[in-house]
Amino acid sequence: MQIAIGEAVRNRIIGAFGHEGSEWLEGIQATVDQVASDWKLHGLVQGGELSYSWIGFCSSSFGEACLKLSVPNHESLAEIASLYAFGESGVTARLFLTQPRLSAVLEEQIVPGRSAWSLSPDDRATIAGDLMRRLHAKPPAPGEIEFVPRVADQADRAFARARRDGVPEALLRAIELIEEVVEKSRSECRLIHGDLHHANMLLGTEWRIIDPKGIAAPHWMEPARFILNELEVTGESDRFDVWQMLVRTLADTTCTRAEEVAEGSGLDAVLSTCWSVEESIPQVASELEARSELALRIAEWATSYASSAF
Fold first, then answer.
1. Domain boundaries in the chain?
2. What whole-number distance in Å separates Cα of residue 227 and Cα of residue 239?
3. Which CATH number does the domain 114-304 belong to among 1.10.101.10, 3.30.479.20, 3.10.290.10, 3.90.1200.10?
4. Residue 161 and residue 20: Cα distance in Å, rounded?
């Protein structure tokens, strides 16, 4: 099949991975052809929405499958390690084959594959909390975080670059507010999904989780990406009330202290905004200002949660 990757996706990959991303894009056609041949894949078609990886759907000896190819680096290796680690949870897509050298993964295709966005706000929060609880039902396994990045180290690097390179004042203030949470996150780490947003929760015969990033962080960081995604589609006047509701709901369903879920949401919001600056996303200054202001608001709510009568 002929690979077609649009300019916006190409720019996103190069912004995130630099020269390695450019080289990967140049060779993606040959890589897809090689993996399809080695794994005897048939009827391969490209997925409709690409972000930082190439996705295709196909038939395999295991059944209908999803092929994912990523830029080979430590993050893609962490994802592969996470897929194996989470496999026993019963809530992730079944893993069929991997080729770490090419950052290639073949796993179960979730059909029909409706995402959590298809549900009402209350229902998707309930489903998200249940999936998170089941994902972490077992105690951490020895050595499970040995080969994955630590969220505190990611924050150290991202915050240092933000201070050096110049970012909106609101983001700098948010970084200062959230530093204590970074220090707290250095302890009690376990393997978490790290990117458990709505599009990574898909409905087949039952709900399944896909695409773990694989991060070493406290368990109370897991709800953070879901909360941030909800706030990004919520009107400004309603954001605080929605944030409170999500913190309480996800704390209850995951058996976590609400103030820790609040702190995790603050750290993730600030860190995600720093990453968007590094990758030149968004391109428009006004959008970056808006994201920085949102990160600051969440950091303020998060760091005052325990002492406030919310």
1. 7-108, 114-304
2. 10
3. 3.90.1200.10
4. 20
CA-closest candidate to residue 167, choices 282, 289, 12: 289
> pTM of this prediction?
0.92
Burial classification of residue 126, based on how many CB atoms lie within 10 Å of its CB (0-12 exposed, 13-18 middle, 19 or more buried)? middle
- Residue 21 to residues 55, 114, 184, Cα–Cα distance (Å): 16, 30, 33
- Which range, of 57-61, 142-146, 155-159, averages the lowest pLDDT? 142-146
d(CA 65, CA 49): 16
pLDDT one-digit tens code per residue, 106-144 = 999 999 999 999 999 999 999 999 999 999 988 888 888
Inter-residue contact 132 to 254 (CB < 8 Å): yes
pLDDT digits (tens, 9 = 90+) for 165-178: 889 999 999 999 99
Helix (H, G, I), strand (E, B) or coil at 143: coil
Taking the alpha carbons of 203, 264, 80, 71 in that order, is the dihedral positive or negative? positive
Q: Which two tokens stand for residue 115?
A: 């995402």
The helix, strand and coil proportions of the chain, stated in percent and rounded to the nearest 5, come to: 55, 15, 30
Of 203, 48, 45, 39, nearest to 106 by C-alpha is 39
Taking alpha carbons only, the member of 257, 261, 248 closest to residue 126 is: 248
Per-chain mean pLDDT for the chain: 93
Are the C-beta atoms of 266 and 178 separated by less than 8 Å? Answer: yes
CATH topology of domain 7-108: Phosphorylase Kinase; domain 1 (3.30.200)
Q: What is the pLDDT of residues 260-291, one digit of tens each?
A: 999 999 999 999 999 988 776 555 677 889 99
Helix (H, G, I), strand (E, B) or coil at 59: strand
Q: Longest C-alpha distance within the chain, in Å? A: 60
Contact 39, 21 (CB under 8 A): no
Which residues share a beta bridge with 45? 57
Sequence-distant (6+) residues with CB within 8 A of 50 are 5, 6, 9
